[in-house]
Amino acid sequence: MNRWERWGWTLAALPAVLVLLVTFGLPLAQSLAASFVRDGRPTLENYALVYRLYRQDVLYTLGVAAAGVLLTFACGIHLAGYFRLRAWPWVEFLLKVPLFVPFVVTGHAMRVFLQPSGTLSLALGALGLVAPGTRLGLGEGWLGLVLALTWKHLALVVLLLVGAFRAVDDSYLEAAQGFGAGYLRQTWAVLVPMSATPLALACVLTLTSMLGSFSIPLLMSRGSGPQMLMIDLYYRFGQHGDFGVASALGVISYVLASGAVYAYLRSVAR
Amino acid sequence: MWWTRGALVVVVWVVALVGLGAAQSRATLQVAIAADVNVVEAHNNYLGVAFARNNPGVTVHAVGTGTGEAASRAVYTKIKAQADAGRRPWDLDVALVSMRYAAQMVRERLLYRFVPQMQFGRYVVGPDTERAFGVEVKGYVVPMFKNQIAIAYNPTFVQRPPRSFAELEAWVRANPRRFGYNGIKGGVSGIGFVMAWVYYKTGRYELLTQGPYDRKHDPIIRQALEQLREFNRNVVLTSGNAGTLDALNRGEIWMGAVWVDQLVAWKNEGRMNPDITPVLIAPGLPIYPLYLVVPREAANRDWGVRYVDFVANPQIQAKVIVEQFGWYPGIDPDRVMPLVSPQARALLFKGVTPQDLARYSLQMPLGEYYDAILLAYEEIVR
Fold this sequence. Notes:
heterodimer; A: 270 residues; 12 helices; 1% strand; B: D-Maltodextrin-Binding Protein, domain 2; D-Maltodextrin-Binding Protein, domain 2; five-stranded mixed beta sheet
């Protein structure tokens, strides 16, 4: 690339970089600064309050997001492997439906489905799998949240993984089949290792999205116990107008998400 | 020349149309509603239409900013931003905000003192129109309606409802996980229940609502909340007021702390078991008015005052606020209730009588105590 080309590309990229700086960089810097200010003076008080009130929620958010990612990929890898080896367009289309369902609709649907007197409890009771009148409270705890987040993110993960798996040359799979490898073996021994980078990217995207999820936890959450961080953040500024602690919670969320991005960049750089 | 005559005709038409337009649209009142969609509907479909009919050329444009305290905060943020920027006039003419943010806006001199100019200003009575969260709000606020937090129960399962917090405590011990409320993050009905619990356990209602604020009282608040943590072990914490009503309707819980207006509205709409009945228990639960306010530099301030005056008209309060929407009147009930139909009156006071309201309607605490209670709740109860 010569000097003129470099200048040309720099100029072409400049508007996008400026938009990024103004819409993301500036608010990030502002919230970082606000997280260290309380009553107009510099302090660590906001972080102390986060530690005092929300340290359990930080761990809870990480736990829910990690469990959600594990479950999403446990299902997604097998489904994507299946669709790579045996094309089934209708089912593949059905699986993409959650992509077009808004988060808030997912939250409401899952609430109706999983709540104590919800569709799941009634259906299992009608089938005789649980005693009639049994109220499964799946939607009230972390498990319901993990199921809802998994359902919502599975479509995106399958979409990304099917694309990555289809980029793997048929000759590798044929060679594996020649050695008697079945569907599971081909998926785990050939497709997954050869798609490590897109898989890591999908993992980071899912984790950051789950860490920042708001509507689904808001609709499904109870009035007690640990909460997802975005609910706490909304509560701090919505109820109390406390931008200091809300910013500190935001900064902690950035750090959690940055950890995943850093791991991804390390894996790509290697 | 034909074209000069033609141009003249066009100019005359344009001037006439502009003049007509000016005469027709004397003002468009911008009304921000920090409340649920039914309140926005009350302004857009009933109050605004009737006001416009009485005042040709004036239109009322009401928009909702959401629900809960966050909605009132959105109104406050908008007005404050315009004040801080030195911009005049401000683009909101009337706002309906919570007690908490109305008090904050009065303290920060963002509101216009308009009640003395109102024809029906003399009917704006009650302690909540004088002080809110420890701030002198007299003259700045007109409650559109009042909303009471009460304990709703299902008579199928609860034959003898509790009459006091002590009885409620005993009932919850005997019937674990059959009572619900929505904590402090799911809306003000849950917050109100927590405040009432602190009043009950500390016995310091006067101190908490009238001050003075002193941190030396923190231990009694914390002790009350430690007792609430124990109480909550046998309680269902729902996701919001609608969640509590939903759980009551499904029979998942048999009693719950709810807003009376939403209970009545859901019953009117056929969405709620009509047997569910509210009851006010001793020493009481908070009443939480939504205030109509006029921003200090509102573009159509005079029309804004006239609109609030219109809403405070006893006839309008009786027909729209009480009969149509099932709310308690915002102004002096002695002026409004004689104008209300017997059926509407019976529906409104089923379970919670005017005498109950007089005895057991409590105020929210001072802002400092309110914040201290919420903070301690987050730390102790969760």
